[in-house]
Amino acid sequence: MSAGLHEQQRRLAAAIRDGAEPGDGLLAGDWAAGLAVYRHAYRARLLAALRDNYTVLARALGDEAFDALGLAYLDAQPSRTPSIRWFGAALADFMAGPAQDLVPHAALVDLARMDWALRQAFDAADEPLLQAGVLAALAPQDWAGLVLRLQPGVQRVALAHAVEPAWRSLREWEPESGDAQPELTPPEAHAHELLAWRQGLETRWRSLEPLEAALLAAVAKGLCFADLCEEAARHLGDAEAAAAAVVAALQRWLVDGLLVGADQRAS
């Protein structure tokens, strides 16, 4: 690509995206009306992408409030990636910080975090899942150094409110059906972690108890089975109960399809 063409593209992108003046020689004829159309279409398309990525949040806020939030986000965080799929990655942090005045309740930030986690889980790469038979074939002495690997779609999200019931109600509501929007009570403050992942072609989620959240965090760090048992013992205060808890968690992760590998810790 010639330097001249690249400069023309940069100027045109700045004129559409940032509202910059195009300057002399870039556009011919009566260009003002046409440029205004492109500017509007650009912002409208990104706003639609944001609404698609944050379906439940958009339903909770309503069209007018969501549009105001989305346009403020677009001004503060212009899209810088080739794919609009990733536009909105920082929306929850934006809501919790600079855009607090546009957020009627702090729990809406958690709805946004949940929306984004589930989209991330759905779009993650595929990997063959770990099968129970692989673990069943392990020799007893191999368990202590066993290092599990989570599938790429596993998302763990820290939430400050118990938003899951509200999220479910709004997700199941179809505005086009003509049914009234569900009446929701403000979620209670409840610091916890949410687990989201993809199982086949379906996204799944569940709220995590502190022990399982700690075990998943340990797996994500690459800690071995013996380390998981030590972590469980710190929570439960009993080594035998800890080992049983780790085995139970492992069995659940296999059923849920959270694991893609099991290796031995490097010596």
TrEMBL record:
UniProt-listed Pfam families: DUF2063 (PF09836)
Matches recorded under InterPro entries: DUF2063, DUF2063_N_sf
Domain Putative DNA-binding positions: 7-95
The name this protein goes by in its record: DUF2063 domain-containing protein
Domain of life: Bacteria
